[in-house]
Amino acid sequence: METSFTLLQRVNAQDWLHIDGELCHKGFSHLENMLTTEECNNLKALYSCDPLYRSTIDMSKYRFGEGTYRYFRYPLPDIVNQLRTIIYPFLVPTANKFVREMQTGTEYPQDHGGLLGYCHQAGQQRPTPLILKYEKGGYNTLHQDLYGDIYFPFQVVLFLSQPNEDFGGGEFVMTEQRPRAQSKVEVLQPRRGDVLIFTTNYRPVKGNRGYYRVAMRHGVSRVKWGERVTVGIIFHDAK
Ligand SMILES: O=C(O)CCC(=O)C(=O)O
Ligand SMILES: [Fe+2]
């Protein structure tokens, strides 16, 4: 989308009631054409700017997969910070519905600063947004991005590379683990500029006796050729 709309206007224009329904019933929602090609290219170009990062992880070293990711330092790049701050409040009603259904007793504050306040009080002070790069053979094993006791139940991935043009393979994969059942998978291939919102830990599903937890994990299948770059926006900070 070549657009002159601000990020706030673009986020505001989404059908958040529909997104709420998708998060509750499927655990993810795919928003198409949120970022322009120029914004994607600008974000990708940040990858090699060393001073922006607090740490760089070679995924194979920890057997997390194959590829590299880099955690941004504070202050975050403007577009990452804006999206983190702007998207958060739209997700709070769904997050609080999850909490009420599971009766965990926590309520998420209405603005992102409030969530960071809770994180910082609990000793979670390190920024979690990151940029990930996979080359031929790269992949990301199934995982959850929790980073401490305080976590927000949704997170976001920005897709910066074009499938079948910049890379092949490298699908985004999610699994749902229902209690006492086999796992179900979803395989997505979002396009450059798309944004995916998904459940970090679990989603509540109504059963005969109240709600039960369906754990969700995400990862990336093997990249067959080319280079795939994403930015992950996690709303809570890390220990
Ligand atoms: O590269 C991807 O699509 C997955 C990124 C990821 O695991 C994350 O942002 O938490
Ligand atoms: Fe992740």
TrEMBL record:
GO molecular function terms attached to this record: metal ion binding; oxidoreductase activity
Keyword Ribosomal protein (UniProt): no
Protein name: 2OG-Fe(II) oxygenase
InterPro entries reported in the protein's UniProt record: DUF2086 (IPR018655), Oxoglu/Fe-dep_dioxygenase_dom (IPR005123)
Keyword annotations: Iron, Metal-binding, Oxidoreductase
Family, similarity comment: Belongs to the iron/ascorbate-dependent oxidoreductase family.
Fe2OG dioxygenase domain ranges (all copies): 125-238
Organismal lineage: Bacteria, Pseudomonadati, Bacteroidota, Cytophagia, Cytophagales
